[in-house]
Specification:
Layout: H1 8-20, H2 22-25, H3 31-41, H4 47-59, H5 68-77, E1 84-87, E2 92-93, E3 100-101, E4 107-110, E5 116-119, H6 134-148, E6 159-164, E7 172-182, E8 185-193, E9 203-204, H7 212-223, H8 227-241, H9 254-259, H10 263-269
Antiparallel strand pairs: 1-4, 2-3, 4-5, 6-7, 7-8, 8-9
């Protein structure tokens, strides 16, 4: 039985490698010139021959002139010294913002561990952040670093509050500062309450309504509150949505609605507002 011939995938890879090294090989950087170079060496290639050729080409290191936009995109993604950076052939989520990168519109980067990741071109990332993305991790780190500097915060509680809408589309925007329990321990997550609902589907941490810019704006605003400001923001949440500003549950009687907390949270935190949280 004859050896397996070179596959189309191997040929295309070899052609791309030759094009990248065209200047060193003294040929034009075109697919035609690259193919002629390959088959001038040998008329027919087996799969094993092709692998050997590819390894020989990879051994020829190419120093490329840095593209400022590409360098900026790599810096944003935190990618250092990738093995290869090429136009992305497949539509995949961007490592930075989490949104899909259409085929041939972004960059595919081979990391030092040979893993491939896809990122948008410089400036093309969405400001809306999806879970698991690089910006989502930046957002989470920013929130936790900020909260760690606040004087006292009850680790067992959650905090719901309202702020004047910065878009002008609504009178108020509603938020929750809640704990997310992970394998590595619990972390604070800033979430936006959408449409007055606290269901899992409507209490969203990131996409499509939360951006890193918004998270920074909200955390910075709340971090500058004095006690009265914070109490007002909590009570705005409770009075507007009829929900407890400690746990988010529905307030079912007049007294609870007056103090902004249900009976369980009032007994735990003392009523009126969460005295355990001092932001100034």
């Amino acid at each position: 039985m004859s050896e397996n011939p070179m596959s189309e995938k191997q040929l295309n890879f070899a052609v791309n490698l030759v094009i990248e090294r065209a200047g060193l090989l003294g040929i034009d950087p075109t697919p035609t010139s690259a193919s002629e170079f390959i088959f001038a060496k040998q008329a027919n290639y087996s799969s094993a021959d092709a692998s050997q050729l590819i390894n020989m080409l990879l051994a020829v290191k190419v120093t490329k002139q840095a593209d400022p936009k590409t360098e900026s995109a790599l810096n944003t993604a935190g990618i250092v010294n990738p093995l290869r950076v090429i136009p992305n052939r497949f539509a995949k989520p961007c490592q930075v913002c989490g949104h899909d990168v259409a085929s041939a519109t972004g960059l595919a980067c081979q990391l030092s561990n040979s893993k491939w990741v896809t990122i948008h071109q410089d400036g093309m990332c969405s400001d809306e952040v999806k879970d698991g993305s690089q910006l989502h991790r930046h957002m989470e780190a920013f929130v936790n670093d900020a909260v760690a500097e606040w004087s006292v915060i009850d680790e067992s509680s959650e905090y719901y509050f309202a702020l004047a809408s910065h878009t002008g589309n609504n009178d108020l925007d509603f938020y929750g500062l809640v704990k997310s329990h992970r394998k590595g321990g619990a972390v604070w997550v800033l979430k936006r309450v959408v449409g007055g609902s606290l269901s899992d589907s409507d209490l969203t941490g990131n996409s499509p309504v939360m951006s890193l810019t918004e998270a920074k704006r909200v955390i910075t605003t709340v971090g500058d509150f004095n006690h009265d400001d914070w109490k007002s923001a909590q009570m705005l949440f409770a009075s507007s949505l009829g929900r407890c500003f400690c746990c988010g549950r529905t307030l079912t009687d007049d007294h609870s609605r007056e103090v902004g907390m249900g009976s369980v949270c009032e007994a735990k935190y003392g009523g009126g507002s969460q005295e355990s949280l001092d932001l100034y």
